[in-house]
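Technical note accompanying the year-one report. For the benefit of new consortium partners, we illustrate the data format agreed upon in the data management plan: each record pairs a sequence with a structure-token string. No post-processing was applied to the example shown here.
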Amino acid sequence: MSDLLKKALSLGIGLTVASKEKVEKVVDDLVKKGEIAPSESKAVVNKLIERGEEERNTIKKMVQEQVRRVLQDLDVPAGSDVASLEQRISVLEQRVSELEGNKPAVTADPAAETNTYRPGPSGETTAE
């Protein structure tokens, strides 16, 4: 596992994936235990949710950067490269179509058009 991914996992994934309700429940439990004053509970919930969002965004950026690096290392073309190639192919297809319209069609094997001798079932050559 890459160091970048290890760092992402050690950022406090618990807060990152925790829902607002779960955070509120944890803070309510802390208030009941007397570890947080009731007047501070809302501020603590908001701070924890904000921190979770920040960590989620940080992890997202790290994952995107890692994926970008892997795709680059594998020489995967970017979307703009693919779009450019598709456009070039379209132009070439149009040119081929125009050229084919101006010239008689050529078969894959021109010799096949003039060769009237075909092998028979037992391999002997017969004329058609």
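Partners are asked to follow this layout when depositing records. The longest helix spans residues 41-73.
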